[in-house]
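Sharing a chain and its predicted structure for anyone who wants a worked example. Both blocks are below, sequence first, tokens second.
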Amino acid sequence: MDMEIVFPGGKKVDVAYDGFVINSDQPVEGGGEGSAPSPMALFLASLGACAGYYVLTFCQNRQIPTEGLRLVQRTLPGPDGKGLGRIEIEVILPPEFPEKYLKAVARAADACAVKKAILNPPEMAVSARRG
């Protein structure tokens, strides 16, 4: 899986992958235009989207209606008030959601592949060369 990262101007950084372009920018206070999510926001969004996919699939596989289903993700700073100290994901279920699946749907969200990658991080290597 290759991705190409390009710089369209200012503090913008775009990632081209599989026919898609994922745009990022820095907030105005960080010198950007605030025209797109920051890379950190995209990282956090990938976690929420992944958990959401697992919850959606859980419901679809059991033919449980998904109208009104949503997730709320919160980030809390570390003890020093900076960085990421805790990420919380709350699955908000419709009132008619079957009681017998409450714990199982939370486990489904918790099984997210992005979370697993964070908890068991890959080795990373960075190099530079002249093009």
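Comments welcome. Strands lie at 4-9, 12-17, 20-24, 70-76, 86-92.
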